[in-house]
Amino acid sequence: MKKDFIKETWEKNAAQFKTSHWASWGDIYAIQLEIDNNAQFIKDGDKVLDVGCANGYSAFEQFKKHKIEIHGIDYSEKMIEHALDEKNKNYAKDPIIFGVGDIRKIDYPSETFDVVYTTRVLINLSNWEEQVEGIKECIRVAKKGGTIVFSEAFWEPLVLLNALRTLKNLPSLIEHDFNRYIKKSKLEKYFSENKIAFENLDFTSVYYLGSRFLRELVTQPELYPGYSNPINELFFQIEQKFSGGGFGIQQAYVVKK
Questions:
Q1: Which end of the chain has less neighbouring CB within 10 Å, N or C?
Q2: Domain residue spans of the chain
Q3: End-to-end CA distance of the chain
Q4: In this predicted model, what pLDDT tens digit does every residue of 30-51 receive, in sequence order?
């Protein structure tokens, strides 16, 4: 039987980091930008689905922001195990529901949720055909008049950032082997051909420009391993007020059903 090395990657992360944001990603500022961007489409009273919820970190943050019923699914059993541990420990009586699930075949009836969002989930599927399956499923389970937010990583901004880095003789940023970044052009073509209205939100450009380019020119990155460079927080603060330019690898496509 062929091993699913992508799933194994997240199972190992879950076992190592448990309920920490590190189980999903170490870049807490980028995670916060994702959470804040998704939050603007959620209002009190909504029934929300977090597709690919990992250990529930972002779902809990959305629950703190809104009076909602939120469901989270993830195909990593260990991620869901830690999400349930946190729920039972601190949110036992709250309408937060977690379960093992697959974005390619979401186990909910059509038109169940007011808001459906993904956060770096489609990029963990092996190919474009599977990504389309996930897109269709997210749209299917959203109510008529509901909102679907695909918050994912995209290829074109990676190329743009690497072009800048090349000009300053910096090594290229890479796409991890467990990711399949989406081409914006391909996604937009798919939406257009299927008459799906969409809006593209570039909500991380200034942050990426600072944290993936300028920081290596104006600081000594070797002194600040990982995501600990203090310049990251400064550009996170700027990003909360200004964005744009096409450098944000993390972007969102918003569909109104």
A1: N
A2: 5-256
A3: 39
A4: 999 999 999 999 999 999 999 9
